[in-house]
Amino acid sequence: MTPVELSRTVLGAVRRAVDDGVLDVAVPERVKVTAPGPGGCGDYATNIALQLARPAGEPPLHVAEILRTRLAASDGVRDVVVTGPGFLNITLGGAAGVDLVAEILRRGPRYGFVDEPSGEVAHLRAPCEVRAVVVMDVVGRLLRSQGAGVRTSCEGGVLEGEWITVLGVPGCGDEGVPGQAASSAGHVIQPVPAPASPLHLGRDAGRWALLHPAGHDRPRISDEHLVQREGNPLFRVRYAHARIRALSRNAADLGFRAEPGAIEPDGDPAHPAGAPAHPTGAPTPRNPQAATPHPLLHPLADHPRVLARAAAHRAPDRLARHLVSVADAVLPLLPAVLPRGAEKPSATHRARLALAEAAGAVLAGGLSLLGIDAPEHL
Asked: Which parts pass through the membrane (predicted)?
C-alpha cells in the first residue's frame, strides 16, 4: 500500500464515520499521512483526528478512537494505535507489502510517475551557471514525471559546450511545450553556484555533486564523489543497483525468479526467528496479514510522495537523499537473497528477490530522473 492509497483508506474511514452519524463534519478532500514522529509507532501516522476535532465539536482523542476502529478494519491495515493528543499511528499488514512489491515490479522504473497529464505547464528559468542548469534539467524531469508540461530557458550568458556534452544538460536554449508561448514569469532556479567546474568528475559523479546538496548549501566539487567505498553515498546507491541486477542474473541461472511474498524483518517470509514450532517440529507458518512489514517497504512505499514533493518544491536533493535511504535499507537484505550451499530455491528466496528487485526499480527510476546511470555491473 502506497502513501497515496493509505491516504484514501483513511479518507474512507472518515466517510464511514460520517455516514454512520458518529461524526458531524465535512469530509476533507485529502488526508496527509507521514512517517511517525517522536513518540509514534508503526509505518505511518496522520493527524486527521486533530484536524476534525474542532469542527466536530468533539475531543481529539474521541475522534481518533472513532476513526481508529474503522481504519483498523480496512484491508491492508494490521494495527492502528492512538498516541499523544490524537495521532493515528498505522501499521500495514504483510499482504499490503506483497501488493506494494507487485505494483512496483509491474511499473518498473516508472513507479511513482503520474500517467495522466496534470494540465500544468511550468516555466523554469535559470542563470547560465552549471549547477543552476543541471538542477533546472532535473526539476524539469521531475515535473514531467508528475504529468506537468515544462518550458525551460537560461539567461545571462552561454553555457560551455563541453559542460553540455559531459554533464548531459540541454544547454541554454529555450526548450518547451509545443503550442506554449515563452513567458517572462515562472520559477527561477538559482541554487548556490558551484565553486569549481565538475567536468573532471564525469557525468554521474559531477551531476551527483551538484544535485545531492540542498539548493542553499554549497556543493563540494572533489574526488570524494569518485571513491568506491561505503562512505560515498553515490557509490552505495549505484552499488546497490548493480548488486540487485547481479542477483537477478544469478537467480535466473539457478532456475528461479522473483515472486512477491510477505517478508519479515529477519528476511524469512514464512519462518521468522522465534516462531513457535509445529508439532511435527517445523516452524508454524504465520498469517501474512499478521507479519511485521520489512523495514525496506517504508522507503519503497514513500517513493511516489518523494517524487511529488521533489517536483513541487523544485528540490532534486530530496530525491537524491531518498535514493540513499533506499540503498541503505536494501543492502542488508542482499546476502540472503540467493540459496546457500546445497539449499534449493524456495518461496523465501523468491520473495526476497522480488523485494530486492522492487528496490532496484526505484533506484533505477530515481537515478534516471537525476540523469545518472544505473549500472548493470560495478
From this structure: none
